[in-house]
Amino acid sequence: xxxxxxxxxxxxxxARDHELTLLSAHDVCTGFRRLRFSSPTLLAEVAPEPAAWxxxxxxxxxxxxxxxxxxxxxxxxxxxxxxxxxxxxxxxPAGPASAWATTAVPGATVMAQSYGSEPFVxxxxxxxxxxxxxxxxxxxxxxxxxxxxxxxVELFLEQHHDHERDIPLAPHPSLHVTRVPHSxxxxxxxxxxxxxxxxxxxxxxxxxxxxxxxxxxxxxxGTKANTYLQAYWIRGRAMGRTRDDTSGPVPD
Length: 252
Ligand SMILES: Cc1cc2nc3c(=O)[nH]c(=O)nc-3n(C[C@H](O)[C@H](O)[C@H](O)COP(=O)(O)OP(=O)(O)OC[C@H]3O[C@@H](n4cnc5c(N)ncnc54)[C@H](O)[C@@H]3O)c2cc1C
What we know:
Blueprint: H1 4-12, E1 18-29, E2 32-38, H2 42-45, E3 53-59, E4 67-73, E5 76-78, E6 83-89, H3 96-103, E7 109-113, E8 129-133, H4 138-147, E9 153-159, E10 175-181, H5 186-192, E11 200-206, H6 207-211, E12 227-233, E13 248-249
Parallel strand pairs: 8-9, 8-11, 9-10, 11-12
Antiparallel strand pairs: 1-2, 1-7, 2-6, 3-4, 3-7, 5-6, 12-13
The structure holds flavin-adenine dinucleotide.
Flavin-adenine dinucleotide binds at residues 53, 70-73, 87-89, 91, 93, 95-98, 136, 139, 232-239, 247.
């Protein structure tokens, strides 16, 4: 299978292929599908820490013989058995990853690589934790919620459809959730009105929504170590097809 320039870059970086075999797939709720995989080797290379993610190569239905890479969070995993769960947002228009997640049957395989994953590390000095995202970030958010101690947690979730309320959130004793219906600037508008001095910030989701949050970097007490902003997808554009792919950390 051809992997284009991204595949060449990953080869140069020494990324190793790990086979994932689909064991089962089910809809957690409308538009959110859980895939359970088995991999004999992946979890020896990437620890399933909160928000850890992998690069999965999916067949591109538009270009037979070609594969494209997409980032997905390890939602849950058991290193003993080598089994892991990936939660996939099923969106329209579909892309190679969401299409595969909808149609693949047990026994189907894809390859995964681990490179660049930055698991969440709690800042013990923070006054609280600000989490921002949309459904694509919920697997990471849930991993973080399961790991952080009883500190105030404010979660702002950008919502594109009513059914997204059904996506389960991990319980946390001090969690407060604000759902923000999507419109340009709405997420940044609702977050920006608060004083986030000395809070830890973790945010991931649609590229434009994330760009609008860059001002959070300048909050009192904000450092590189306690601030994480990452674009997970781009409205109206496939990820990873071109050299100027803007996935990855939001630029200053
Ligand atoms: C580090 C990292 C971790 C991630 N973890 C997860 C995860 O655990 N679960 C998850 O579902 N996603 C996750 N994502 C996001 C996922 O990689 C992207 O959504 C990706 O674009 C999906 O690929 P695709 O082939 O389905 O669609 P693409 O071919 O990339 O895009 C096709 C069309 O779908 C639209 N689109 C893409 N994603 C979405 C979306 N989420 N909602 C609505 N429209 C969309 C695009 O704008 C485009 O118009 C993660 C991304 C990164 C970088």
